[in-house]
Amino acid sequence: MGSLAVMQSIDGKAWSSPPQQLPNQSSVNPTMAVFNGTLYMAFTGTDSQLYIWSSTDGINWGNKQVLSPNISNAGPSLAVFNGQLYMAFTGTNNHLNIWPSADGITWENENKLVLPQNSSNAGPSLAVFNGQLCMAFTGMDSQLNIWSSTDGINWGDKKSLGYYCPANNFPPALAAFNSMLFMAYIDHQPSLNILMSQDGLNWENTHISAGDTGWPALAVFKNMLYLATANGNFFITIMSSPDGQQFETLESFPFNYDGEALAAYGPALVWAYAGR
Fold first, then answer.
1. Cα distance between residue 143 and residue 145, in whole Å
2. HSE (CB half, 13 Å, CA atoms) of 16?
3. HSE on the CB side for 249, CA within 13 Å?
4. Is 59 exposed, middle or buried (0-12, 13-18, 19+ CB in 10 A)?
5. What per-residue string of b and e applies to 100-139 under the rule 16 or more CB within 10 Å gives b?
6. What pLDDT shows up at residue 17?
7. Residue in 201, 198, 194 with CA at minimum distance from that of residue 228
8. Could you say which of 167, 172, 196, 214 would form a disulfide bridge with 122 (CB–CB 3.0 to 4.6 Å)?
């Protein structure tokens, strides 16, 4: 476990250095989303408490809140849907939870929904696609699943995608890009894979590279799909693609880490990670 840190890039290639160290610790991946012109980051602390804080420049962070009494052993996920900021997380009982906030600051426990019909021992991933809030997660059987909601409250039947993603390794990442929904995951090899779908139901798999062992993260920035992951030596690699299929490696960093997130904010791509 280690301190959270952030870096920025204006072009996705040259990154601010050294990383800006933040005064909070986590041992799993953080998550970021832009809501009402502010960049929000949620993370699970080393005390298993859920936290959220915000930034107006992507570097300086404040207004940290602990979201008691909610606890988790995995990283949460954020997405903006229907004018609200949503957080999904896996409770310590392995139940998935979805939680909306109207302002990103006030999180009422009575608004949180526990989704006991599906369980995971890894964190979920959220994205908005075709007017629906989509959630990807690894089931207790280590199979990748996705389901969706038109209102953030009622969730349809999950769809098992038939791909094996060991839940005790890393959760999937989800992003909408070029009218398609993309999912990145690490399989049992371990290898990095990209799934893509035109409708959120039918998926095609693209193998990206072997030997990748870290949390994948996805974000759209300047009409490109960006992907961050770690290789077997825990070097973090940043890649980009114009179509979500062919990726170019842009930069690698010799950081030993425990999870990461990407988000486009203003003119920059912001990358956050939990150091080790």
1. 6
2. 16
3. 11
4. middle
5. bbeebeebeeeeebebeebbbbbbbbbbbbeebbbbbbbb
6. 84
7. 194
8. 167
Dihedral of alpha carbons 240, 192, 137, 147, sign: positive
Interval 163-175: pLDDT, tens: 888 755 578 999 9
Say how far apart CA 148 and CA 7 lie, in whole Å. 32
115: helix, coil or strand?
Answer: strand
Strand partners, 268: 265
Query: What's the CA gap between 32 and 29, in Å, rounded?
Result: 10
Residues 6+ apart with CB under 8 A from 119: 94, 95, 96, 139, 140
Closest CA to 53 of 4, 16, 17, 99: 4
- Tokens at residue 221, please? 């920035």
The shares of helix, strand and coil residues in the chain, as percent rounded to the nearest 5, are: 0, 60, 40
| Tens-place pLDDT, residues 86-112 | 999 999 999 999 999 999 999 999 999
Q: Is the pTM of this model over 0.85?
A: yes
Confidence of residue 3 (pLDDT cuts 50, 70, 90): confident
Q: What are the structure tokens assigned to 114, written together?
A: 């526990």
Residue among 4, 28, 143, 158 nearest 92 (CA) = 28
Place of tokens 């170019």: 248
